[in-house]
Design brief:
mainly alpha; Growth Hormone, Chain: A; 78% helix
């Protein structure tokens, strides 16, 4: 049975005046308090067993593979079923995976295999959460408030991310990674309970799931700006995550005081995300997609800083600027996507976009891990930075990028 839609009949003055948006935002905030600590805790769970770049790359790759395999399924379901129910189930599954991981790490029974298996389950959960999240916001708030809603949604979660990595670094250093992983599991469970009360209509659907998937691919390929952005993102995201998430903790362990230093780098990056959100609350660029693409340049800065051996304050400054650019890019992209893709198609279009951007991540992790065996880590970091720059420049050469602009209904 379909539930009542959360979109109010009367236009609200701000996204915060919509009760469903407040619940949605609170669930994101609660989950973010755990997710801010999880990457550092996962990395040092692996490093604590005496493993290096190769093993960490394998674990991170196995976390991504199931997301790629199930994203299209999640996208089709997000355009056929209640997105709020999918969000509830996805968060519940993630809570179970992180709870199991925390228990095995805390009892000393964790192995590379058990960590990877928990990552597999977490990856499946993400595959159902992500497409539903992209389409849910358009059902919750009026279209003229989309950019502000995207920014407000990110503001508190980014604020949490500022302190989260620092606290996570201290917790990992003092008590071990299991405590941070347990908190992550608890926050996923709390978010699931909040989302259980968010009742959204199932989007109208016609035909079989397979026909929906075929129609989705046709719609995706017909939008040149969408598939070229996805192709560039495949390179950019892989290079960023391989350089920052994979090699970053290893460089910090050798040159920047280990977990504490890496926690500060992540906190600086999160501070940049917060600053970028504040910019997006005030700045409403007309060329949404061009801004989203160009802001990706900033992601190369911390990789260059670490790759050239700059001191920790310089790395922190570079991470701050990268965070500002990334958040501007995310909000601009989300608003462009929500304005230029019809709501009933957003689950599938978002899934194709995410599959494309995630597809190169396992290969990127593995190739980076192999490259780190042949070349020094800092050389590999500089190579990742060069790939980011190339992806952005090539994407800016696509004419359609400059045609996906802000629609007048969002001028408020």
């Amino acid at each position: 049975m379909k539930t009542a839609t959360a979109l109010p009949a009367a236009r609200s003055r701000t996204p915060l005046s919509v009760p469903a948006f407040r619940r949605f935002g609170l669930a994101s905030l609660v989950s973010a308090t755990g997710s801010a600590m999880a990457p550092l805790a996962l990395a040092y769970s692996v490093i604590g067993q005496g493993s290096g770049a190769g093993t960490l790359g394998l674990v991170l790759a196995l976390n991504t593979v199931p997301t790629i395999l199930f994203l299209l399924v999640g996208g089709v379901l997000a355009d056929r079923l209640s997105r709020s129910r999918l969000l509830f189930l996805g968060n519940l599954l993630a809570a179970a995976a992180q709870g199991t991981l925390a228990a095995t790490v805390g009892t000393g029974r964790a192995t590379t295999t058990s960590i990877a298996l928990c990552g597999l389950v977490s990856g499946v959960a993400v595959a159902f959460i992500q497409p539903a999240t992209q389409g849910a916001l358009a059902q919750i708030v009026p279209p003229e408030h989309l950019q502000r809603a995207n920014a407000w949604l990110r503001l508190p979660t980014n604020a949490v991310k500022v302190a989260g990595p620092v606290i996570g670094g201290l917790v990992v250093a003092a008590r071990g990674p299991a405590w941070a992983l347990a908190w992550d599991a608890l926050t996923f469970a709390a978010a699931a309970l909040l989302l259980l009360g968010l009742r959204l209509d199932a989007p109208p659907s016609v035909g079989s799931a397979l026909s929906s998937l075929r129609e989705g691919w046709t719609g995706f390929w017909s939008r040149t700006w969408l598939w070229t952005y996805t192709a560039a993102g495949t390179v950019l995201v892989a290079a960023w995550l391989a350089g920052f998430q994979l090699l970053g903790p290893l460089v910090a362990a050798r040159h920047y005081d280990g977990a504490r230093g890496w926690g500060l780098v992540q906190a600086a990056f999160a501070g940049g995300l917060l600053a970028g959100t504040l910019v997006c609350l005030r700045w409403k660029p007309r060329r949404l997609l061009a801004v989203a693409v160009a802001a990706g340049f900033t992601l190369m800065l911390p990789l260059v800083a670490m790759g050239t051996g700059l001191p920790l304050p310089a790395v922190l400054s570079a991470a701050l600027l990268a965070g500002i650019g990334l958040d501007i890019s995310i909000v601009a992209w989300a608003t462009a996507f929500q304005q230029h893709v019809p709501a009933p198609e957003q689950g599938r279009m978002g899934a194709f976009n995410n599959v494309g951007e995630r597809l190169a991540i396992p290969l990127g992790y593995l190739l980076t891990a192999l490259a780190a065996r042949m070349w020094d880590t800092r050389t590999v970091l500089l190579a990742c930075a060069a790939l980011i720059a190339a992806a952005v420049v090539l994407n800016l050469c696509v004419p359609e990028v400059y045609r996906v602009n802000r629609r007048q209904l969002d001028d408020y």
